[in-house]
Write a structure and sequence with these properties.
The two termini are about 30 Å apart. A hairpin with a 6-residue loop joins strand 4 and strand 5. With about 270 residues, the protein is α+β, with helices and mostly antiparallel strands. The longest helix is centred in the middle third of the chain and has 15 residues. Helix 2 packs antiparallel against helix 3 and helix 4 runs parallel beside helix 7. The protein contains ten helices and ten strands. About 40% of the residues lie in helices and about 15% in strands. The strands form two sheets. The protein has a five-stranded antiparallel β-sheet with strand order 1-8-3-6-9. A five-stranded antiparallel β-sheet has the order 5-4-7-2-10.
Length: about 270
């Protein structure tokens, strides 16, 4: 966990090393921007089911995705990264977050080749993971910049998160004394998506992570509990967010649990092999 001033922007910094559970993982869309500084062989990202797979040698920055995306780790893999809060990536970007929506950028594209080359050199020379994370935190503090509208986006996003996406967006706008047009523009610049889309992401994420794949699933009850008026709409959104049908999702989650019990990544990534 980073200290001030990063603690309001970031959930955690992490170090990852070793053999991935699968060569390709499918990551469902979630309100969780990500920055990775890669220290090993290139990894591969396919953003969207019809996109072309692209190699990322130095790392990547990923704004809030709107659909499932595929991540291919080399084996072994080694990297440091940042899990941001939805509004947390924007103060470190030279462009609006919407430009990275479902279009991950390399770290070189956002910070420049000399800067990322020097940072990677220092990280590789570090003696322990803790030292590496401190170096990354120092770099982030140095690059932190003011963002117009960050305060109102952060306040509204926190309210959306606390309710699992169930709060009426109109009510939040009225309370903030801001028009829907202004809020949509600020949200897209800071988070990459509109307030309504962010709420959908939180609602869907909470629904899916609450599913007990070890027991029979009543999809009608799941859909109704998530606020969907019909199961067909729920299935359509399920495929958009996870890349899978609900039935296939359960099968894939069960496979992960069976083949890698108690794995650190068990909760969200899905094997794509």
């Amino acid at each position: 966990m980073p200290g001030p001033p990063l603690d309001g922007l970031i959930d955690d910094l992490y170090y990852l090393e070793g053999a991935p559970p699968y060569s390709r993982l499918m990551l469902p869309a979630a309100p969780a921007p990500l920055l990775i500084v890669n220290l090993g062989a290139p990894f591969v990202i396919r953003a969207g089911s019809h996109a072309v797979a692209v190699e990322y040698a130095d790392g990547c920055a990923v704004a809030t995705p709107t659909r499932a995306w595929e991540f291919g780790y080399p084996s072994p893999t080694r990297s440091v990264g940042v899990h941001f809060r939805p509004w947390g990536l924007a103060p470190f970007l030279p462009m609006p977050a919407a430009e990275l929506c479902d279009r991950p950028a390399t770290v070189e594209q956002i910070w420049g080749r000399p800067a990322i080359s020097e940072l990677r050199r220092r990280l590789i020379a570090a003696h322990a993971p803790h030292e590496m994370l401190m170096l990354l935190e120092e770099e982030l503090v140095r690059r932190l910049r003011a963002i117009n509208g960050l305060g109102i986006v952060r306040h509204m996003s926190s309210a959306i998160a606390e309710t699992g996406g169930a709060v009426p967006i109109r009510d939040l706008g009225v309370a903030a004394h801001a028009s829907s047009t202004y809020l949509a523009r600020r949200f897209k610049e800071v988070i990459g998506v509109t307030p309504k889309r962010l709420a959908r992401s939180y609602r869907f994420t909470a629904t899916v992570l609450a599913i007990d794949v070890a027991a029979p699933v009543d999809w009608g009850d799941v859909a109704a509990g998530a606020g969907y008026f019909d199961q067909a709409h729920f299935v359509h959104e399920f495929r958009e967010f996870t890349g899978l049908t609900p039935t296939r999702y359960v099968e894939v989650r069960q496979r992960f649990l069976r083949e890698h019990p108690d794995h650190a990544l068990e909760g969200w990534p899905l094997p794509a092999d």
